[in-house]
Give the backbone structure.
Amino acid sequence: MPTISRRSREDRNHLPITSFHIPSMKSSPTEGEEAFWSVQEGLSDPKAAFDNHLQVNPARASVHLFAWKHPKGLCLLSKKELTNRISQISSIMSLPNLKGHSIRIGGTLEYLLHGVLFDVVKAMGRWSSDTFTIYLRKHAIVIAPYIQASPVLEPFTHITMPPVH
């Protein structure tokens, strides 16, 4: 079971970021990819979630980063286990049952609602095309600042909006 190395660093503006190399992913099965996060406010803070994961699932440094405690010992977190757990939590909380793709789209929407540029969200989500924008038609709230008579975000609209084809 390969380990995933994690490191904390700062950008040139001294903004903290945590990154880790995932050795194999669907989009890059042999080379893997770099994943990263920054501390956020509220319940969606990835650092708080990660720290909680390490407290609930303590493991040696040689164990896979996303291993979790199972009655039979530590197990590698799989997509199936993750979606099963999300289904359980959704049911307990009386929330809609989210699937993997819905979570990805929801993350995209969350970043856009925070004012992150479309091109940045596209790069972060590893979208190879502007396909993710088709999901936004249902989310008028994302588009609202751009379509006002006096757009709130002008003069940046021409930079942040994806090109019209």
In short: The first strand starts at residue 6 and ends at 10.
